[in-house]
Structures
1.
Amino acid sequence: MAESDQHDVTRLLKAWSGGDSKALDELFPIVYTEVRKLARSYLRRERPDHTLQPTALVNEAYMRLVDQRHVDWQNRAHFFGIAAQVMRRVLVDHARMRQADKRGSGERPVVLDEALALVAERTPDVVALDDALRALAELDPRQAQIVELRFFGGLSIEEAAEVIGLSPATVKREWSAARAWLRRELERR
Amino acid sequence: MDAGRYQRIKAILLEALDRPSRARATFVREACGGDAELRAEVESLLAHEKNDNFLEPPVFDRRAADTYVGKTFGHYRVLERLQAGGMGVVYVARDIVIGRRAALKFLRPELVGDEESRTRFIREATAIAALSHPNICTLYGVEETPDGDLFMAMQYYDGQTLKQMLAGGPLPVAACVDIARQIGQGLAVAHDAGIVHRDVKPGNILLADGVVKLLDFGIAKLADAAALTMHGMRIGTQAYMSPEQAWGRPVDHRSDIWSLGVVVYEMLSGRPPYAETPRGIANDIAPRPPSIAASRNDVPPALEAVVVHALSIEPGGRYQSIRELVAALDAVGAQARPRARIAVAPFRQSARIGEPQLADALTEAAIDGLSIAGGLVVCRGATGGTELTGTVAVRSGQVRIVARVHETPSGHVAAEWTLEGPRTALPELVADLVRRVTTHLDVRLTTDEARQLEVRARAEPTAYWAHQLGRCCLREEKESGARAAISHFESAVLAGSDAMAAVTHAAIAETSVALLELRCDDADEWGRRARAELETAARIDNAAPEVIAASAAVALRLDGSPAVAESALRHVLTLRPSDARASVRLAECLAISAKPVEAGAVAKDAAQSGCCSPGQLLRAARVLYFAQQYPDALDVLDLVVQRMPDDPVARLDLAATCAKRRDVDRAVAECDRALDAHVGRALLAAAAGNAARARGDRARYDLCWRALRRFHQEEPVPACAFDLIETSFGNTGRPIEYLEGYDDNLGVARFLGFAMVAGSLTRYVSSVGLIAYLGLDPSLEPLAQASSLRRWLAAS
């Protein structure tokens, strides 16, 4: 990882934490690329029966992308907010591709996604959840974001509150409501 | 439903959730007023609100439910929990100063609870951290968290443990031997430092890219002490524990030998030899482990014997050092390996390039690289069977090698490769070719061999090339070639001082010894040189087969220690069973040590391998002559003169061998052919003079002297000829003492040995033809009389 990238990411992260929402658009592709790159390098070295460890993956992406000396825990929470989006994208893409593969479209999933299969299998139905989350985002974008941060990003209530700019109490209530809505939605599908 | 509607529903729902559950129904009814649809929505969502683990844990759990993850200790940032074992929990961490990954093992607090065990642990860990060996997991150090937890920071390896590998069943024999050797080499270094592992088991043996890394040195000792104090009993993995360990007796390095024996047994049979009955193991031990041969039929009996020896119940009955065990495995490995055979034909080059040595040196480089593979018999020249041929071209600095493996005489091309790269990539290209050929022939390189190949692949290109040019010069086995070779090797040493330099210094040492054999002047100078180069080579890499071989040459020729040389050569031959030079040397060693029968057998095998150079065949023939295996010696000499028809020394040897077989006509004819060469004339004259003097025939001796002087005026003769003619006069009288016992093998062998080690006499003296001409063998007398030598002498 070039030092200039690290500098960029750190700067963008601070800008985003400071309220510049455009910074997010620049950050997402950098983090997405880094996570995929790391995942590929893990996969080259590890045997197929090893699970890809998303925790280590994202932690390592963070170590590589962010200059630790210049960030506080709030910036860190923001980073993991992006990681949540990245993980959602990767998992959903993978699940969709697997479905397509089962239907015989001939499209083969890329290596990264094969390793993520194990993660995806633990999760009820990532594609259905993603669809439900999109529907929720139409009704209440904030709730959808909280779910994304909590479920795909592993953020605590406090961290999610920091990323979204709400009080932890509000996030907690919204999280409960969103869970109820999603549970019902998934049962209906 | 639209967003506005959802916000209304959500507002009521959230308010309801803030209330105790029994108050919710009433609240919702009131809040929704008469809007039945709204109420139905809220109630349905309320019904789906459960305090369960829906959407939890998240797919990506940063905290991983662990107190250490995400924290920083010293300069280590803990990334993730890897695994938990008996001794503690292992995490992946990143060294935030250096940026590399590391594995942190947090020791279970009860293992290091008291100050004494902490101190002892830190002291041992420091000793282990000081060990540097490819088969020992690198320990960065021991550190402490602010809470007082102790952890070891170690190198992080991608790989799997032997335990994981064995879950798939037993391993192939070659893999078992290779892994066992590596474990043994790691343990040997630890034992040298006084450290006993105490817990050698598959779970503590990691394999990263085929390289063994031993983990957890000495932790078992802590666990032992802790368990003893806590429960008065031992913990650990019973199945791998030595009997003395299980009995609670004092434990030394031989306990690790037992455990390694168990590990090898398990690799071969799929399970350890003794059941994991706690405590009972010691009582259950049978005098011998259950036979491995019962579970599979491809285990060489010699390998099973090694395992059984390691598994002797009394430590005194086992191998006494891990190196002994490794040597035994080496010997088994050398026998067990199937051999493929390849003949390397001279590479050709495209006519355009004005660099005549390129193809030659490339051929040498290919032979040099392929010879690393102990499982491969490599022959020089188009000798039939499976052959490697190739062409090389250079265009604007780019080298292009086209190599193919084909079968002769059928001409079937089994494989063809094109390798291209810049001139500087030649070492890598050759290594690549070697890998392709060995893979094609299904010859597996051991870890050590792969390392030797890697040393060449990464060698400084100029040095590498100079080394191969030097090897080219040695092919002729002439003094001038040897001198030219040394000067190439010297350039190589100047150009690069990497690991390849050990091989080059060893080559200088060997060549110096060869020069010492070829000449009788400058002997002291070459001797000093050989010793100095060997010393340098050994400092760089004393395990390289070339270095061990050079040490044998020095031991034999300079130190006069055939026993030392013999043991070194046997070691070389376990690593490279088809090394013709080492085989021939070993035969000479055995001859000098008065073991003519074994010497003859080794010489015959070497000659029949088809891999000997003419010079090596000549030496093998002499050993056979002294072993009185004349028909075999004759067969070998015929091979020599096919390849070097005009070599006077070979002709003289032939003459003597034919005379021994009472084939006087051919003996005389061979002498005549020897006389065609200046050297042959000089040596024959010297030998005849020597013989005459020994018989007291002064006139004939003077005649011979005059002839020799005349030959010398025409063209300088080897100085040893003058030595030879004088030898019987007591100037250096000892050869005669040895020759007095000529009719028994012992005396001949001693003379040969003396001739080889006594600096003033050279290989010409050890030439059987000359010994025959010393006239001490009555059966050779007609030969001396009938030879046209008389004409030459008369003409003087």
2.
Amino acid sequence: MDSFRAELMLLRRRAATWVLLAIAILMGIFFSYVLPYTVYRGGSTTSSNFATGLSPLLPDRLVSTLLGGFPFYFGMLTLILGALAFGSEYGWGTLKTTLMQRSGRTRLLLAKLAALGVMLVVFVAAIFVVGAASSVAIGLGEGAALHAPSLGDLARGLASGWLILAVWALFGALLAILSRGTALAIGVGILYGLVIEGVVAGFGESIRLLRDVSQVFLRTNAYSLIAPLQTGSGSAAAGGPGAFSGPYLDASHALLVILAYLLVFSGLSALLLARRDVT
Amino acid sequence: MERQGAAGLTAVLDGHERPDAADLVIETRGLSKRYGGGIVAVDDLTLQVRRGEVYGFLGPNGAGKTTTLRMLVGLVRPTAGSARVLGQPAGSTEALARVGAMIENPAFYPFLTGRGNLDVMARHAGVSLERVEVVLAQVGLSGRADDRFSHYSMGMKQRLGLAAALLKDPDVLILDEPTSGLDPEGIAEMRDLMRELGRGHRTVLLSSHIMGEVEQICDRIGIIRQGRLVAQGTLDELRGRPELRVRGTPIARARSLVEALPYVEGLQARDGTLVLATDPGRAAEINRRLVLGGVEVLELTPVHATLEEVYFELAHAGHAGHAGHAEHVAGAVSHG
């Protein structure tokens, strides 16, 4: 518990954590509300599939609208957070200092993961709070009726969002442990998340093999997990940044795959941390 | 076992007075670390550090000092042999609970203050946060505890590293070149601090390549070369017995006179002088014998090898100018 408190303190006191959260909030507001609202007000768009209309911007569609960003840019940002949380320990040499205080590399890993998990709760909550404020502001500005999303949808949305961020953060952490640093981990992570998964999934529509491969991707499963919570054409997944056109999998299957990824990433991280020398 | 080298110095591996196992705080047996590509960092190292002593671990850069220390705190796993600290396997929870260490450069979070860093380390160590103030005062850093670590000078960073090592009020303190990068004033301050910390019950293992530091602080010294311990003993044991240098004329007459003396155990001629392996307390008697024997005595001086001379003999064996004798002495002590 003491180690968990120490790790939470580190994440809290680190400027990078709050910079990433600020970027996440700004991106969330911009892509989920500012941009669509500008398009709605202007009445024109250069892309036929980019969602426009007022209804996705109102509070009752909060969960649907915001969740579209989690498998994509929010996920990339928490990948960076995970990579920084673990990779910096190598860069600064603090892993050595910490491990000399008390033995137990698995204990340290669990403390770090728990602290990261708590910080992701803050991320998800902050994104939803700012998203809610934005949707209320738009609704009031347009004189539309304001209806809160159902508590069930909200709870499922928060949980799904947290799970998606957690799997990306753990992926970043694993890459950082693997590369014993931050730079390569972040580079490889973003390259994988944006380019490899994006390109393979993009070609998946025309090449069956790539379509099958893409079914194990983080993004595919993340989008599949949130698909039941996304309604209408207003979801961010339907157009704009991070657009995803499938394949969609069964949500419960996607949940199992994401949980499996969490276990695998944690296990591999623990194994690497336990077996390798700290120099 | 004692052996006398050609230069007259005597180096000792103190196995002849093997301490009780309970008295050994750090003990390694055949400790080895080999990396891929055939790199041998530590090779069959057998080291003994006794309770309450300040042990100097001397060796040139790359000799394996830091790797050995890393193995003692569990950061690096040995590829062969074993290491025990306070009777427990090195790096185990039981051992680390009573060991404080600063290995290589002090590494802390740059965005935290000195106090913040110690708070984090105290939580990880499972010790009360009250200890933070105690160790800050102990290393003289209380006044700058709220400055960011990234704003610290090298000396302050070293002090913070020492403070972190002291958080658990450890029975064993392992310090790896703690004066590295410090200015002369900082070195003197750190040396005083280490001397203070070494008083009483605490055992200190100090790695260094600074002779003066080790000479002034340490009770016993181990010298490592290419991953192997080549000598271990007290400073006096490593320096060997003092000798007596005699310069007189005629030198041949002087030689024949001193050779006949029963208490002269060895004699060498070097650069026109005679170096006698004998008790320097006999200098007056030897002088009288020489004068009565018709020798004009020009010089009669006790000579004692410095630690630096011993170190260069042992640690740099194989280098030009040192090879033969060094191997001779090293071999002698290693199998003592």
